[in-house]
Structures are given as structure tokens and as C-alpha cells.
Amino acid sequence: MAALGSPARTWLGLLRELRYLNAATGRPYRDTAAYRYLVKAFRAHRVTSEKLCRAQHELHFQAATYLCLLRSIRAHVALHQEFHGKGERSVEESAGLVGLKLPQQPGGKGWEP
Amino acid sequence: MWRSCLRLRDAGRRLLNRPRGSFTASEGSGPSPSTPARAYAPPAERKRFYQNVSIAQGEGGFEINLDHRKLRTPGAKIFTVPSEALAVAVATEWDSQQDTIRPYTMHLTTLCNTALDNPTQRDKDQLIRAAVKFLDTDTICYRVEEPEALAELQRREWDPVAEWAERRYSVEIGSSTSILGPSIPARTREVLASHLASYSMWALQGIEFVVTQLKSIVLTLGLLDRHLTVEQAVLLSRLEEEYQIQKWGSIEWAHDYERQELRARTAAGTLFVHLCSESTTVKHKLLQASG
């Protein structure tokens, strides 16, 4: 029932996610430990040509799980930034929503230090 | 007005208390952020204080270095993991933090911290019992009677998984439409408990975490045995919600948000268990065969 798809697609997805992760730091993703490890792992298991190789399936499942992790974290953070990251509005902004303005009192309110 | 429509489950509470992330995955997460000036202002986040993240191999396993400092757990232990892949993944998590550190994006780090510190101080038996206890209230076993479309969907999607589990472990699970839930025979509990006992302590922390997230031990077993992918398991866990979404529409900032968060946590938990359970001897043999 495991609809894993093809290893090639998982590999491309992983590369894409690594690119996203490293885009901000500016460092090329090929320098990262994650890239090197994934290349080593995929290469090591590619040589066996049997389609039913259990270790291949295990590796592919792990890779697909890691890909799901990276993708969902990125989507989750993006959603959080967009919808939940802004905090609360200030009193001035809230008043402005309904077209009101806070009164200006140049002398202070009297009880403020 | 919208908040009352949201079911205030775990994720719902988090929506209200965000973004205070803690570093350990214990269920009773700490009290709400100590009073900032406003009722709800995002608490000050730690800035990224390191340039480079590197991995070092110590006697106990692999350690993570942030610049020249060793990474430590919240319990002040040195952060050590047994698996290289896990160390690489954790290092990637730390490296992917940009200007601020967001603990809620670092699921693998959190799981490792929990395994190292064991803040709830449970031993192996207690973890196994906690996981098997979910069998009584397993999502897969609770069926509705109406609406008919949903009942049919549950039969179509959940029955195969339950049957797979019954075949794989030679147990009886069954399902029920009553509020009391299914009656699970004691033998099923024993068989599953002894199966879980074959996992290490670290792996069990991960397993218990996934079971708590998916609210189902059958789905977790499907993930552990690689019978289901993470996306499939999350879909099956949220079957009713997805049904309602298809019928009534999706609210991006709630439904998508919850789905992605559940996927992230489940994926992290599953990966954690698999990485903690694999043995390096298997890898070496394969490398020799291909070399």
C-alpha cells in the first residue's frame, strides 16, 4: 500500500528542499553535510538491480519520510508566518480599523510619570 | 467568531499559545509565556548565535557543534546521538535556522532531547503501556454510523489497514460503533506489547510520540513496518476531518496548518524511530557487496 513513487522523484524533491534550506545562507547546497550523506546513501544502494531489494525499499522509505519532513516544515512555517506570525495589533491600529483615532494629550494624562 | 468553530484540540490550544516552542516533547508542555506587556505578543526569540554547524564523533556517538560550542540538551547533558544520519539531520535543522531560532521547526532535535533527558522519567515498560493503551481508543477502531458517506469512507480506508495489522501480528482488533469502543482481547495487547519491547528505549520515545500525534497505534505500526507513507498515515488519522473539508471547504490557516504540522511531527517521529533502530552492520554488508 506504500505509494512511495519513484526514487528519482524523491531524490529530486530532496535536492529541491536542500536548495530552499540553503538559499538564505547563500552557501551552495552541495557543501552541506546533508547533501553529502544523501549522495553517499543513494549511491550505495543503487547498484543492486533487484527491484525487490528490501534495503533499497527501506532507504527509499527513509528518504521519502525525510522529504515529507522538510516539505511540511517549510509549508508549516510559511503558513505560520502568513497567518499567525503577526502578533496583536497595537491600540492605535485597532482604533484605526474602525476609523477612530486616539486622543492626543500633549501634557500627558496626569498620572503618567 | 471563527475561534469557536475550531475544535480546541491540541493543535487548537497551540494556535492560541503560539509561538512558544519548548525543546522537549512532553505532553504537559509548560505554562503559557510569562506575562509580556500585552496579552498576546510573540515572545522575544533567540537570535541565531552561531555561524557553522558541524558534527563530531565522540565516544558515545555523534555530537553537534555550534561554532566551537557543543550542543547541549535542556537538561544540560551533551547532545549525543547513536546514528550518523540522525546527527546529520539534526545539524541540518540547526543550520536551517535563519535570523531567529524557532524550536517548533526542530522536531528531530526535540525528540533527541526527550530521549536523552527523559523528562517524564518513564521506563521502557511505562512507555510501552502508554502506547498500547491507545488501542482502546484507536482512531481506526472508532466508526460512525451516519452520515453514510463517512461510514462508507471509513470502511473503505480503515478496514484494509486494520486487516493488514491483524494479519501481520496474528491478532484480533475489530472495530466498533459504540461509544465504549472496541473490546480488545488481552492477547492482542500482549502480542503488541512484546513486539514493541523489541525496540530500544530511544525508539520507544519516538513510537510513543507518533502514537500520541496520530491517536492510533495501528497507524503507527503501519508506519513502522513501512506499510504506509507518512502522508497516507496522516490522511487516515484525519479521515473525518478531510471528509468534512471536502464537503464544506478548507480553511487554510487552520486545516492546512494542522495538516502540515501533523505531517511534520509524524515524519520526524517515524524517521527518528527508523534511524534509532537500524544497525550499522547491515549497511556495511551492502557497501561491501556493491564495492
Strand percent estimate of chain A: under 5%
Instruction: Name the pair of protein chains with the most residues at their interface, and give those residue counts.
Output: A-B, 40 and 54 residues
Average pLDDT of chain A:
85
The percent range for helix content of chain B is 40-55%
Radius of gyration of chain A: 26 Å
Rounded Rg of chain B: 21 Å
Structural description of this entry:
The complex is a heterodimer of chains A (113) and B (291). Chain A is mainly alpha-helical. Helix content of chain A is 61%, strand content 0%. Chain A has helices at residues 7-23, 33-46, 54-84, 91-97. In chain A, helix 1 (7-23) packs parallel to helix 3 and helix 2 packs antiparallel against helix 3. The longest helix of chain A has 31 residues, at 54-84. In chain B, a hairpin with a 2-residue loop joins strand 2 and strand 3 (69-70). Chain B is 53% helix and 5% strand. In chain B, strands 1, 2, 3 and 4 form a 4-stranded antiparallel β-sheet that branches. Classes of the chains: A mainly alpha (113), B mainly alpha (291). Chains A and B meet through helix 2 and helix 3 of A and helix 3, helix 6, helix 10, helix 12 and helix 13 of B.
Which short descriptors sum up this protein?
heterodimer; A: 113 residues; mainly alpha; 4 helices; 61% helix; elongated; B: 291 residues; Protein FMC1 homolog (chain A); FMC1_homologue (chain A)
Summarize the structure.
Chain A: Plays a role in the assembly/stability of the mitochondrial membrane ATP synthase (F(1)F(0) ATP synthase or Complex V). The complex is a heterodimer of chains A (113) and B (291). By secondary structure, chain A is mostly helical.
